[in-house]
Specification:
Chain lengths: ~280, ~290
């Protein structure tokens, strides 16, 4: 029979072991991006690298592009940042206002409208790619950052409404009333009382909106055409051609893609778990 | 006037969101319903003529369509159950008081932050028969003499894709379930301790019932994700070879976008949209019951 202490050690060890195992595929990408070419494709495999190089990162950011086939990572990064931050920001504002309205006001057909909004999220992107493509050609929105952002805003709003509605619902109305008695207008009460109390919900739904736009590939691959609007996930495909695959270049771009995602998530990680579970379940 | 303003205020707050959804999601969906009743093909001008239910009859007779639907169901069943099993197990480890617990819990979010397309490439490479890490490992430890062609044989290819999907999805399960476990009240556990309940009894009669709303929402979100899986499969096998790993959405992509048969593609996606929205309708009805 194990002592309580011994059990604790075993469980701690298991937790670390499982998580390290889970991270190996991610660590391997970072590792590959800084290895020399010959080792990546070597057979029999080479496990311990002779030297490390940042060559692929240099190519990604500072390559002249003349004479060598490189992927304009810098432009894609810029597009991705604009689309993801822009669409997440706008969706957060619109979704929060709508979530507030759903939680605080009663009106006819409210439940059906709510269900309609939430269900629209269940429509898979690829089902929309054909008609959206035709629509965007007509409206001259194809291959524009604005058009793509609009799509991501529409996709993110339902989730934000869902989370924020859950949060606003939990805030006692008295708090808001008290603020109004103290001389706040309705609008001020919303900004100064309700909103700060919903910070976990705002950060959780904001980061999810950002990640969705940052990671989305299917719609972007149909709705973007050129340097003016292609995002990172679409650009990733350019490392593959019919016969060769630039694994190292791709790994470098993957790392570049991963850094902002990890940065924003860790920035709000304290709120993230609370926001996600509380808003979604209550 | 003020009363009227009051009455329309909520609509004023909601309408921008609803208008964008109508424009980007509902309207195109309606348009594709129309297209699904025509023989529209991008390469044939003037082909947007009404052909009745022809596309729907074609797809009912198409064995590949049924095969891909079946593959999707298998994929979903294995995927969601494995994710729940692993996710719950790891969440039980992480929700304990342990050294560096906060860091571990944060680190467990990392796979979820990976773009599905990135996961696709990552595991396509991991399972690559020539330079992949898995074959390299097996070779180094003398388990195999000749490379295993993971992404070509049907079972192995399905398995490889599932590993990618599960790797990313389990992370989401862990986050929700860990948060759920940590928010459970302490009293029932202390009472059970006094009564001398075993670890398994506590899990079976206290943890599991209290955790079930969290399990429900995690499974709801993940099963919708897996049912609409596209990126990972598209990158790893593209549904091939010879439709062996074809899922419903890779097949819609092949027919609608690669072969530019918009009409038939729309019909296929319509059938699956109805299934997936119907499924979501059932799930959210359940969730709303507890909310309102």
């Amino acid at each position: 029979m194990l002592t309580k202490r011994g059990k604790e050690y075993i469980f701690t060890f298991l937790a670390y072991f499982v998580l390290i195992l889970m991270l190996i595929p991610a660590l391997w990408i970072i590792f590959t991006s800084i290895r020399p070419e010959v080792e990546v494709n070597a057979y029999p495999p080479v496990w311990i690298p002779e030297k490390l190089t940042l060559e692929k990162y240099q190519q990604a950011f500072f390559s002249s592009g003349v004479g060598e086939q490189t992927v304009p990572v810098r432009d894609y990064l810029k597009n991705s940042l604009i689309v993801s931050l822009g669409s997440a920001g706008i969706a957060l504002v619109l979704g929060t206002l709508a979530g507030f309205a759903f939680s605080r006001f009663g009106f006819k057909g409210k439940d059906s409208l709510f269900l309609f909004v939430i269900l629209s999220r269940a429509v898979p992107g690829i089902a929309l790619s054909l008609p959206l493509f035709m629509l965007f050609v007509r409206l001259k929105l194809l291959d524009t950052l604005g058009g793509l952002s609009l799509v991501y805003i529409a996709y993110n709003i339902p989730f934000i409404i869902w989370i924020m509605d859950g949060f606003f619902r939990e805030i006692p109305r008295d708090l808001e009333d008290a603020a109004q008695i103290d001389g706040c207008t309705k609008w001020q009460a919303f900004l100064k009382v309700d909103l700060p109390l919903c910070a976990p919900g705002l950060s959780a739904s904001g980061i999810f909106a950002f990640l969705m736009a940052w990671d989305e590939f299917q719609l972007a691959s149909v709705l973007t055409r050129s340097l003016s609007s292609k995002t990172m996930p679409v650009g990733l495909l350019e490392f593959t051609s019919e016969f060769v695959m630039d694994w190292r270049g791709m790994c470098a771009m993957a790392v570049i893609m991963f850094i902002p995602a990890i940065f924003f998530t860790f920035l709000v990680s304290k709120h993230l778990i609370k926001g996600l579970t509380f808003g979604a379940i209550k | 006037m003020a009363r009227l303003k009051e009455k329309f205020f909520p609509f004023f707050l909601i309408s921008p969101s609803v208008l964008i959804i109508l424009f980007i999601i509902t309207f195109p969906l309606g348009f594709s319903l129309y297209v699904s009743f025509t023989g529209y093909s991008l390469l044939t001008p003037g082909s947007m003529v009404f052909t009745g239910a022809e596309n729907y009859i074609t797809l009912i007779r198409d064995p590949v369509f049924w095969q891909s639907l079946k593959n999707t169901v298998i994929f979903l069943t294995i995927g969601i159950n494995t994710e729940l099993f692993l996710g719950l197990g790891i969440a039980l480890l992480l929700a304990r008081e342990l050294k560096g617990g906060r860091i571990l819990r944060t680190v467990s979010m990392i796979p979820m932050m990976f773009a599905p397309i990135l996961v696709g490439f990552q595991f396509k490479w991991f399972f690559n028969d020539q330079v992949g890490m898995l074959n390299n490992l097996l070779y180094t430890f003398n388990v195999i003499q000749r490379p295993i062609i993971w992404l070509i044989r049907r079972d192995l290819a399905m398995f490889s894709i599932l590993v990618g999907e599960i790797w990313r999805g389990t992370s989401f399960m862990i986050i929700i379930l860990t948060a759920g476990l940590m928010s459970l009240p302490k009293d029932p556990f202390e009472a059970a301790e006094v009564d001398g309940a075993s670890g398994f009894q506590k899990f079976r009669h206290i943890t599991f019932p209290l955790l079930s709303p969290f399990i429900f929402i995690a499974m709801a979100i993940r099963s919708l994700d897996i049912a609409t899986a596209f990126d990972i499969v598209q990158i790893m096998t593209g549904g091939g070879p010879a439709h062996r790993t074809e899922l419903i959405w890779t097949y819609v992509y092949r027919v609608g976008i690669v072969d530019t048969q918009f009409g038939l593609g729309s019909a296929m996606s319509y059938v699956t949209v109805i299934i997936s929205v119907g499924f979501a309708y059932y799930l959210f009805k359940q969730l709303l019951k507890t909310r309102r």
